[in-house]
Amino acid sequence: MVNSDSRTDSGPGFRTLSGIPVDGVYGDGPLPGEFPYTRGVHAEMYRSRLWTMRMFAGFGTAGDTNARFHDLLRAGGTGVSTAFDMPTLMGRDSDHSWALGEVGRAGVAVDTVEDMVDLFAGIDLGTISTSMTINGPAPILLAMYVAMAEEGGVERSLLSGTLQNDILKEYQAQKEYVFPPRPSVRLVTDVIRFTTAEMPRWNPVSISGYHIREAGSTAAHELAFTLANGFAYVEAAMAAGLDVDDFAPRLSFFFNSHNDFFEEVGKFRAARRIWANWMRDRYGATDERSLKLRFHTQTAGVSLTAQQPEVNIARVALQALAGVMGGTQSLHTDSHDEALALPSEGAARIALRTQQVIAHETGVANVADPLGGSHYVEWMTDEMERRATDVFTHLDDLGGGSILEGVYAGIESGWFAGEIADAAYRYEREINAGERIVVGVNAFTEGNDAERARLLRIGQETEDLQLKRLATVKQARDDRAVADSLRRVVADAGNPTTNLMPALMEAVTVRTTVGEIVEALEGVFGTYVEQAVI
Amino acid sequence: MADETPVRVVLAKLGLDGHDRGLKVVARMLRDGGMEVVYLGLRQTTASIIDAVEQEDADVVGISMLNAGHLTLGPLMVDALADAGLDVPVVIGGIVPDEDRPILAAAGVAGVLGPGSPAADVVACVQAAVAGRGH
Amino acid sequence: MAPVADRNIAELVAAARGGELRATARLLTFVERGGDLAEQVAEATHRHVGNAHVVGLTGPPGSGKSTLTAAWTILLAENGRRPAVLAVDPSSPLTGGAILGDRVRMAGATAAGVFIRSVATRGHAGGLALAVPGMVRVLDMAGFDPVIVETVGVGQVEVDVTAATDTAVVVVTPGMGDAVQANKAGLLEVADLFAVNKFDRPDAADVRRDLELMLDLSKLTGHGRSDAVARPTIVSTVATTGRGVSELADAVDTHLEALLAAGLLEARREGRRRAEVRSHLEHLVLAASAAVVEAAFGDVVDGAENPDEPPGVTARRLAERLLTDPDS
Question: Which residue in A89, A206, A293, C41 has the most C-beta neighbors within 10 A?
Answer without folding.
Answer: A89
